[in-house]
TrEMBL record:
UniProt keyword Cell inner membrane present: no
UniProt keyword annotation of Zinc-finger present: no
Protein name per Swiss-Prot or TrEMBL: Transthyretin-like family protein
Domain of life: Eukaryota
Source organism of the structure: Heterodera schachtii (Sugarbeet cyst nematode worm)
Predominant subcellular localization, coarse grouping: secreted
Pfam families per the UniProt record, alphabetical: TTR-52
Family assignment from sequence similarity: Belongs to the nematode transthyretin-like family.
UniProt keyword terms in alphabetical order: Secreted, Signal
Length: 128
């Protein structure tokens, strides 16, 4: 489980677990109102997969187009040959106001209707 602690509204953070080789999405999730989230996913592959954890957010971003994108490689010791994980990777607490060295930007490609608890005009869905 991860807690995102920052000043910005956390309902916008979008998370993906992705096979870095094929770019196939294993699971997609959103942070809760308090910044917590938990992801678990599985896929059927003939070869080992390289799992990448991606975070899309607009924290401390002003009015720039698109979203800030962070990528973290999940260590292979947390990838199991089963639909049920054997152990949990805890990425800790991230302050997303921080500008990370290898941070990227991703343009918005689709839009969804806003959720009731969301304060933005539209809830933006970012594709990996």
């Amino acid at each position: 489980m991860l807690l995102l602690r920052q000043i910005c509204l956390l309902l916008f953070a979008v998370f993906y677990l992705i096979d870095a080789r094929t770019q196939s999405v294993a699971v997609k999730g959103y942070s809760g109102a308090n910044g917590n989230f938990q992801l678990s996913g599985h896929t059927s592959e003939l070869t080992n997969i390289d799992v990448v954890f991606k975070v899309y957010h607009d924290c401390d971003d002003g009015i720039k187009p698109g979203s800030r994108k962070l990528k973290f490689k999940i260590p292979n010791s947390y990838v199991t040959d089963s639909a049920t994980p054997k152990k949990t990777f805890d990425i800790g607490v991230l302050n997303l106001e921080t500008v990370f060295k290898d941070e990227e930007r991703e343009l918005i490609v689709t839009m969804k209707k806003k959720r009731r608890s969301h304060r933005y005009r539209d809830f933006l869905d970012i594709l990996p």
